[in-house]
Design goal:
With 245 residues, this protein is of the alpha/beta class. 36% of the residues lie in helices and 14% in strands. The chain binds adenosine-5-diphosphoribose (APR). Adenosine-5-diphosphoribose binds next to loops.
Length: 245
């Protein structure tokens, strides 16, 4: 990535602010959370998501879901936001970011201070009863699983499941909000392979596109600017350039 790319992308972004931001697992790898598809280290190199994190496994093989799938997801709950998360929160405060659409379930955007966060793949902060829809903090699910109660159950007898969007689930209502915003605002994509639908519909709706990613994506050819580098490094360079405008 050349200095003039940062210079050009910053001028472009400054001229069309505010932007909608779409983040993927790549923004959290510098917080110690592996992404899904990077060769050797990606989570899906070691687990088949359909085997451990699908709606079907939750309902029919809860011992696999709660014994393996949820443990994999919860093993990163100590992760902290990194510089990229904090810069996005700062840009929102300045009115440069309209909102963050994230595919991530790690809550790091919230913890970095971003206010308008659309978690289109859900989150791991809580769960709900499949029978009566009663809400539970994740700690309650973890406590029951640790005590051998698999699947965790609501006092009404129903199974409690996490809010995370599983393979086979519908996306939450905030995805519709993300689609509306994507039609109106330039889209800044950070740390996503853009291989998973329907999140990867958003770049097609946006009036313009800037991509920050370590590797190529199927949408690079549509982007006004592609910045090939680590999210925290690139966002810091963009931040310094934007501050000078
Ligand atoms: N900086 C920038 N890009 C990075 C960094 C980094 N520090 N680390 C990794 N990347 C890039 C990788 O090169 C990859 O292209 O981030 C991208 C992450 O892509 P995926 O692993 O496919 O993650 P994501 O796009 O978020 O996956 C979408 O797939 O399995 C589902 O539900 C899961 O939300 C996830 C969805």
């Amino acid at each position: 990535m050349k200095r003039e790319d940062i210079h050009g992308a910053a001028r472009f972004l400054f001229s069309c602010k505010p932007w909608l931001v779409l983040t993927g697992a790549g923004i959290s790898t510098e917080s110690g959370i592996p992404d899904f598809r990077t060769p050797q280290t990606g989570l899906w190199e070691h687990y088949d998501p359909m085997e451990i994190l699908s709606r079907g496994v939750l309902l029919h093989r809860p011992e696999i879901f709660y014994g393996v799938g949820l443990q994999v997801l919860l093993s990163f709950e100590k992760a902290q936001p990194n510089r990229a998360h904090y810069i996005l929160a700062e840009w929102e405060k300045r009115g440069w970011v309209e909102g963050v659409v994230t595919q991530n379930i790690d809550s790091l955007h919230h913890r970095a201070g971003s206010q308008r966060v659309m978690e289109i793949h859900g989150h791991l902060r809580s769960g709900y009863c499949l029978r009566c829809a009663k809400q539970f903090p994740m700690e309650e699910l973890e406590k029951q699983v640790m005590q051998g109660q698999i699947p965790p159950r609501c006092p009404c007898g129903g199974v409690i499941r996490p809010e995370v969007v599983l393979f086979g689930d519908l996306l939450p209502p905030c995805f519709e909000e993300a689609v509306q915003l994507a039609h109106r605002y330039p889209l800044l994509v950070i740390g996503s392979s853009l291989q998973v639908s329907p999140a990867n519909f958003l770049p097609s709706y946006a009036p313009s596109l800037v991509i920050v990613n370590l590797t190529e994506t199927p949408f690079d050819h549509r982007a006004s600017w592609v910045l090939r580098g680590k999210a925290s490094t690139v966002l810091q360079l963009l931040h310094e350039e934007l501050e000078s405008l």
